[in-house]
Amino acid sequence: MTGFQTLLYKEVLRFWKVSLQTLLAPLVSTLLYLLVFSHVMAGHTDIYPSITYAAFLVPGLVMMSMLQNAFANSSSSLVQSRVTGNLVFLLLTPLTPAEIFLGYVLASMLRGLLVGSVVCLTALSFFSLPFREPLWVAGFALLATFMSGALGVLAGLWAEKFDQMAAWQNFVILPLTFLSGAFYSLHSLPPVWAVVSRFNPFFYMTDGFRYGFLGHSDVPPLESLTIVAVTCLALSWGTMALLRCGWRLRT
Amino acid sequence: MSPAIRIQGVDKRFGSVHAVRSMDLEVNEGEFFALLGPNGAGKTTLINLLAGLSRPDAGHLFVQEFDVVRQYREARRRLGVVPQELVFDPFFTVRETLEIQSGYFGLPRNDDWIDELLMHLQLSDKAGTNMRALSGGMKRRVLVAQALVHRPPVIVLDEPTAGVDVELRQSLWKFIQKLNREGHTILLTTHYLEEVEALCERVAILKQGRLMALDTLKNLMSAHRAHRFEDVFIALMHNAGEQDVVA
Description:
Chain A has one domain. Chain A starts with a helix and ends in a 7-residue tail after the last helix. By secondary structure, chain A is mostly helical. Chain A is 75% helix and 0% strand. The longest helix of chain A is centred in the first third of the chain and has 32 residues, at 53-84. In chain B, the strands form 2 sheets. In chain B, strands 6-7-8-3-9-10 form a 6-stranded mixed sheet, with helices on both faces. In chain B, strands 2-1-4-5 form a 4-stranded antiparallel sheet. By secondary structure, chain B is an alpha/beta fold. Chains A and B meet through helix 1 and helix 4 of A and helix 2 and helix 3 of B.
């Protein structure tokens, strides 16, 4: 294994060792959302023709769980290493900034995709769901977990304490994922909030991902894919630049 | 022969604190060298600069002629650092910790050397134990093993025996002396001057970021007409202004 592969293996091993917390707990909480909301909203007007609310909800919740878990993986690993001081063992190695970035991001993607897959498969045993465009599903799942993992690296570089990381979780990730259209369509929002939602990159991930399942979306999937891909590139470039200059890592 | 460590005109500030001032220093290949000084003298800052954990405001640092900033990959492959702080990753066992550290350096199949390190540091029976379950002394031994796992020719030990019992101290020095005999260069910082007298040939003494003295123990004691190295150290610490670099 190369240094990069070792970092990737270590990050995967880290979340695997605490899989009760990192894989099972998100599954339970997402399924609770699904069961409660699908029952409460049953009988209400369908958002898209001939698509039940539960079928509308499942892709949104799967995407939300992928985003939250991919972010949690890289961000918690970095902040824990920093607070306990063992990050020094990574900084002493010959790994390049790109290897460090990709090691953390790919492990985050794997956790996000694992949680998303298990949530999706479990939901399918309760609700029927079409699967119209598998490539769009895969593309948005990969890009979304990549972006969330990269955002986790950025947050992990910035946060020097656990409360600073909690601020990221509570004031950035949670609002962005809850207001990403997981529970509703953009068309059901007042015009002002519909416009505001268009500045949330998580909205495009959710909308595009849902298109892959239902064949319906609020904005054209290609537009969503372009916005998500450009955001991923910008975030990767910025985070890599910070890693290269040793921002908050090397004094 | 080119030096194992070369520090050229290095300057480092942290806000208003001038941690290292125009430092020039060389450590020869195969040397057992001590970097001494009171708390806040700049020893750990200098080690952090060498390890790439800090960046110099001016000057250059080299490990076996590789610039630690511009050629950091080559420099870090040649350097093993035992940090002063007792830090560990609570997710892994002792063996996993060492395998991961070895893997970072591109050495995945390093079991023989890891077993040898565990044996020399009396950790063999703790290989499968989680790091959280180890005593402070054992965690310190793992730190040493982590620094040595990629067989670096230059080893930096930042107060490795602080808070360590006598038995471990003796076994650790025995092992480090063996590595030194095999050709590894050792740079040591410690507050235990008797260790310096027993182990080191040459010392550098720092105070407030300045190099106060650089010479062999013998020459320094003779220049200060001292019978004990401790007397030389105390004399230099009370002589703030005077530069006493003999070279």
